[in-house]
């Protein structure tokens, strides 16, 4: 089965992101809006316990941090994903690095570009149209991140939360 | 905004339940299969912190317990909900009672019938057909419950996990 590690932003930001995803993201119904800390990876159901133990320790020695968004961007030409750019702070980058180092079941294929997807699997024409109309949109938003989540994927493609990890808490 | 408290059963049981929900439950895309411990209730976003504090304490002095299913049943004539019946053990009932007592923002309208919904909002004819074909289905399944979750609802009706609470852990 597949696991992944994500941050769910505040309800306010999730609602904004969903207003775009509804039209542009076929994963809209499978998972709430999120910032991916570790991409989906394959492991057995029993592995969840040790993943959670590791993530709990990581969360314990990281601190609550601020998440800032500024604009809408795209991964083109790599792929046709449109996203809200999240400023790559040291706190976020270190959390990402440690999670991927400790749960080293896969190699990192890309450098970490923190983002919240608002559209994907668009044709080139759709991508041009949508990105053209959104690229100048300002998304000046700031909030506090105090937790992240380990998820697993069901057979229908949707994701269920296995556990929440609160930053800076003894455990 | 709305909050709720649920148990997500194992992936195996969620996948089975989704094979029915896909056809019979219009909430299929809004939330993974679950057993409701506290029905949706209205509160402000800031209240989440104190709800989580209370739920963490409750989780700390309850123990991991066994969840058993046996058959498919229906709430008719109260409503046209078809569900997998979960045996009402003392552990489950006490957890339900304490959560509803501590988060007493609403009165309990019904007695607690632990269940995992597989179909709802069916017309009377649909209900008759579907329940007629499923009522003799045996669902002999047993698993261990070691956690539950506090969720909140987004504007599009879907639910995001705020926090996980592990049973029998100091916090």
UniProtKB/TrEMBL annotation, chains A, B:
Enzyme Commission number(s) from the entry: 3.1.-.-
Keywords annotated in UniProt: Hydrolase, Ligase
Span(s) of short sequence motif HXTX 1: 34-37
Record-stated family: Belongs to the 2H phosphoesterase superfamily. YjcG family.
Intervals of motif HXTX 2: 115-118
Superkingdom of origin: Bacteria
Gene Ontology MF annotations: ligase activity
Catalytic residue list: 34, 115
Keyword Transit peptide appears in the UniProt entry: no
The name this protein goes by in its record: Putative phosphoesterase J2S10_001358
Annotated TM spans: none
